[in-house]
Amino acid sequence: MAEQTIVSSGKPLVRFESVSKRFGTHVAVENFTLDIRRNEFFALLGPSGCGKTTLLRLLAGFETPDEGRILLDGEDIGALPPYLRPVNMMFQSYALFPHLSVAGNVAFGLKQEALPREERKQRVAEMLAMMRMDEFADRKPHQLSGGQRQRVALARALVKRPKVFLLDEPLAALDKKLRTQTQLELRELQKKLGVTFVIVTHDQEEAMTMADRIAVMNGGRLAQVAAPREIYEHPKSRWVAEFVGDVNLIEGVVSAVDAQETVVETAAAGQMRVPQGNAAHRGDRVLVAIRPEKVAIAREGASAHGGNSVSGILRDIEYFGGSSVYKVKLDGPGSMRISSVNVSRKGETVASKGERVTLSWSADAAAVLAQ
Amino acid sequence: MSAPAADTPARPLAAAHPWSNWLIILVPYLWLFLFLLLPFLIVVKLSLSQTAVAQPPYSPVFDLAAGFAGIRSFFGALSLDNYRALFSDSLYIGSFLKSLEIALISTLLLIAAALPVAYGMSRAPRSWQPALVIAVMLPFWTAFLIRIYAWITILQREGLLNDLLLALRIVDQPVPMLASDGAVYVGIVYSYLPFMVLPIYAVLCKIDDSLLEAAADLGCPRWKTFWLVTFPLAWPGLAAGALICFIPIVGEFIIPDLLGNSRTQMIGQTLWTEFFANRDWPVASALAVALLCALLIPIVIVQRMQNETLGARR
Ligand SMILES: Nc1ncnc2c1ncn2[C@@H]1O[C@H](COP(=O)(O)OP(=O)(O)OP(=O)(O)O)[C@@H](O)[C@H]1O
Ligand SMILES: [Mg+2]
Fold first, then answer.
1. According to a count of CB atoms within 10 Å of the terminal CB, is the N or C end of chain B lower?
2. pLDDT by 10s per residue, chain B, length 314
3. What is the ipTM metric for this complex?
């Protein structure tokens, strides 16, 4: 999908040029073209087995591409073995050396460089202090908690001051609370050090909160690359819309197109007006995508707001604490999910199960996707 | 699930057959007592006796018929003279030191030979590895003695190796190879190699590949990764292999007897000579006990080190 290459300002730091990688007959990465900019926090997002790890390993040098080139700072690094690449990786399993202490692990990479002993010691100490691991410097990895091990793995790679820092699912082993905290810390760290981070994750929320830009992958191919908001609000395809967040998809046919709006005739919700975004032509069969939280729900008869509305019967309410999700069977074919913030503590809902409700949304809440 | 419920399946078994539990524990101890401790005590007793031209060739002989006085005189007749003899005669100390020297050098040679083999095996494709392990153990299918005789036919004056060297015109007359230190080392390294390869291989194939990748990622070329990561992690295997080889090599008898000469007299040969040629059972026994005590030292050291590394790995 070469047409999806982002034209970025300035030279990209990393460039994948039509890279393919096969394992036997299995294609892990296919004709992959992508630019990663300097100093950005970049996330690779996709379902399990879509080739995220393979892409990182190609960049680190543990795999060689079957086709295409990988450029770092404009230079083809295809022929460089891993130990000569100015790229460091944090492994999914952390891969700490069990026979070395925390300080020994962190110093390992620097010992491979011709650094004066004093400078090496200083950089190790600085890095340990930054990671708040200085008091554990003499411990062995097996004497650390999961979170501490992870910080050692971070320190060990970052102390090398890589041009690109690769993280393969760095937070997968942590519990939810520690994960959220570490997400913020990682982001702060990235801004502070000014190193380009490329993180692999299959958790979309994680990608959204941390990354400047996200590449969504599907089956070894690039599905979309953009800023988190862009991915969420303007998905390029049905697959991206469904993979990132919850979405209602309503089938229809385009009946009119002008500069501002696309008008779609749907069986489920009648005529829908959608702002012009993705190019569609009169007569195209399309999907109208609406995120659940963009829709307002009210008892039938209450005044609807926005440009579009549709009625139905409330079938089910899922309670999530901060918000609830309402499942509504539309009068036409199909149903919709609406999420609404629980403002009140009393437990009253907009409507009860079985009641007739009206759903409404403003014209710019929806987007048109190819079917 | 509540705790008592979890307990119940185990309880009735143990309660119904308390003796079966004891039996399970007793069997190995009984075995050790009958075939290790008892013979050892007999040897200890022998080592405290004196040679006699008699049948059996030592005194005192335990005689219950003499009653309590007999037992007293029995214990009174025991002495440490044989141990004094061991330390005063340079023959014993000399052959003991020679044994240690040969065992130490052989163990180092074995490590040097086994490490590349084990490393190569652990790096081979997974599907080949069972076949390689069998290949390492294949020599065991032939009797040990026959394999050592085979080395005689290879190393002797008109042997295969000399024939080859002569045919290739590398030498113009046969080289004496048999009956030398070198021949003993060849025989030992050849015989003990599997015992060194297998423990090292067992450790190497457990090393996580991502550790090697991490080392490469941090700027370490392959050969250096071997010394900085693989070798230290293989240490428990090396120690186990060294222990398994070192101790029997110290007591080795057949290899130096068949491939060595009088200068390679090892403690095992000295022991054999005392027992069977000189019929000095007490001195031979004292020698055996002293040897055992000396060998306990490396065992304890290696066990300590292994406990430490095991603790580190958990
Ligand atoms: N060394 C290999 N040999 C054969 N197939 C491989 C190899 N490495 C990866 N694959 C295959 O390539 C595909 C992509 O693997 P990859 O590890 O990149 O997925 P991933 O996106 O990182 O998945 P996950 O989120 O589960 O880690 C998978 O189908 C995997 O089975
Ligand atoms: Mg992966």
1. N
2. 344 444 444 455 545 567 888 888 888 899 999 999 999 999 998 888 888 877 778 877 777 677 777 777 777 778 888 888 888 888 888 888 999 999 999 999 999 999 999 999 999 999 999 999 999 999 889 999 999 999 999 999 888 998 999 999 888 888 888 888 899 999 999 999 999 999 999 999 999 999 999 999 999 999 999 999 999 999 889 988 998 999 999 989 999 999 988 887 888 898 888 888 888 889 999 999 998 888 888 788 878 877 776 555 54
3. 0.81
pLDDT, one tens digit per residue, over B223-278 is 999 999 999 999 889 988 998 999 999 989 999 999 988 887 888 898 888 888 88
Q: How does DSSP classify residue A172?
A: T
Residues B233 and A100: beta-carbon distance below 8 Å: no
Determine, for residues A83 and B233 on separate chains, whether the beta-carbon distance falls below 8 Å. no
Using alpha carbons only, give the angle A98, A102, A107 rounded to the nearest 5 degrees.
Answer: 100
What total number of domains does chain B contain? 2
**Alpha carbons A224 and A235: distance in angstroms, whole number:** 8
B7, part of any domain: no
Count other Cβ atoms within 10 Å, centred on residue A233.
17
For residues B99 and B176, membership in a common domain is answered with: yes
Q: Tell me the Cα Rg of chain B.
A: 26
B310 touches chain A (CB under 8 A): no
Find out whether A92 and A53 touch, Cβ atoms under 8 Å: yes
To the nearest whole angstrom, how far is the Cα of A112 from the nearest Cα of chain B? 6
Burial class of residue A93, CB neighbours in 10 A (0-12, 13-18, 19+): middle
What chain A holds in terms of domains, given with CATH numbers, is: 4-241 (3.40.50.300), 246-370 (2.40.50.100)
* Rounded average pLDDT over A72-96: 91
Structural domain including B154 reads 82-313
- How much is the pTM? 0.79
Closest in A87, A97, A109 to B229, CB measured = A97
B248-280 burial code (b ≥16 CB/10 A, e <16) = bbbbbeebbbbbbeeebbbbbbbbeebbeeeeb
Q: Are residues B64 and B128 in the same domain?
A: no
User: How far is ligand 1, taken at its centre, from the CA of residue A51, in Å?
Assistant: 6
DSSP for A296-355? EEEETTSPP-SSEEEEEEEEEEEE-SSEEEEEEEESSSSEEEEEEE---SS---SS-TT-
Residues B120 and B184 occupy one common structural domain: yes
E strands in B52-143: 58-59
Q: Is A76 on the interface with B (CB under 8 A)?
A: no
Percentage above 70 pLDDT, chain A = 95
The β-bridge relationship of strands A285-290 and A248-257 is: antiparallel
Render the burial of B214-232: b for 16+ CB within 10 Å, e for the rest: bbbbbbbeeeebbebbbee
- Identify whether residues B263 and B210 lie together within a single domain: yes
Whose Cα sits closest to atom 5 in ligand 1? A23
Do B133 and B159 lie in one domain? The reply is yes
User: Is residue A285 within 8 Å of residue A267, measured between CB atoms?
Assistant: no
Domain harbouring B105, CATH code:
1.10.3720.10
The count of other CB atoms within 10 Å of the CB of residue B176 is 12
Hey, which residues 214-253 in chain B have their CB within 8 Å of chain A?
214-221, 224, 228-229, 232-233, 235
Query: Do residues B71 and B86 share a domain?
Result: no
**Residues with C-beta less than 6 Å from any ligand 1 atom:** A 23, 26, 28, 46, 48-54, 202
CA A40–ligand 2 middle distance (angstroms): 21
